[in-house]
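Fold this sequence, please.
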Amino acid sequence: MKQLLLLLFFTFSMFSQKTTESFISNKLGETREITIGLPSTYDQNPTKKYPLLILLDGDYLFDPFYGALDYGCYWDDLPETIVIGINQRNNRMEDCKYNKDNGLPSGKGAAFFEFIGGELLPYIEKKYRTAPFRIIAGHDTTAGFLNFFLYKDSPLFNAYISLSPELTPEMETRIPEKLAKSKKAVFYYQSSADGDIRQLREPIKNLDANIKMITNSDIDYKYDEFHNASHYSLVLYSIPSALYQIFDSYKPISSSEFTDQIVTLQSGYVDYLIKKYDLISDKLGLTIPVRLNDFKAIEAAILKNNAYDELDKLAEIADKNYPKSMLASYQLGLMYEKMGDAKRAASKYQRASQLEEIGNLTKDMMFDKYDSMNGLTQKK
């Protein structure tokens, strides 16, 4: 865990477009400062869409979240994400004001609620290329406030990161009730610590117990209680844990996934790959090319289990994702080679040698493959 904390003190190059602007809000009747973080590749990929993270308490949560995402992107464990931080340094208590009788936003709190949903989100999504996946995060007072968005019949956010929340009246029961009735995938994360503020801990634990009683398979819930952490240090522990929970399906195939879940299959290795990327699309609203390392992992499982006929289906996926590359022809050549059809293998390797190199597949490698297969054909 200490290694994860180190990432919050370093800035890599993934996120380089960080700007601050003044946003004139009619709902609030004032100008608010927002910080916008775009991925460094944003301008280089004019059709790519990105998840959106809205940060309450953006004045101090922006950099920790920004760094965590930056680090995860570097290893391709987390997707590039548009980060929007709302500066609440002098406004957070008024922004989060609620009626103590009914536990709902009131006064400035109601206006701030409308500002986020009715002004800020439309503005950001019109100006930037956002995927249909929204996250909201906050700490203590703002962590409690963000739960109000769950109360809506059609919640605005897909994922909620609640760091040591100060829960308003009835939240301990209202949140589980809403989650239980949800008909779409919702990610919900909350955290506390043994050194957290005492009056916050019991409501948080009650909420945790109530959520764990839910049987809704659409809810992806995680609760962390950190040891030897304070109300403030728990934030640094929580951020990577929450992000890796939400984006778990996004990660490339790991060595443990390969060993425990893929190579042990009797068949359906390519189907596993298809389902993995369908899940990324369905849960996160992201359409990404199949990673080369994931192709290699499935190829390795096929070869290990002598399921050579599946290379044909893998080649179809390769052709769809990398149509100008030699990947698809190489996999067909490999299939015929393993099946003992040297003539067809040579033909496919020859075709591959005329296409673009990709990953560790080179023209020289294809020429060598062709010569080897062609030699076997001539001997016959």
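DSSP finds 15 helices and ten strands in the chain. Residues 53 and 83 are 5 Å apart (CA to CA).
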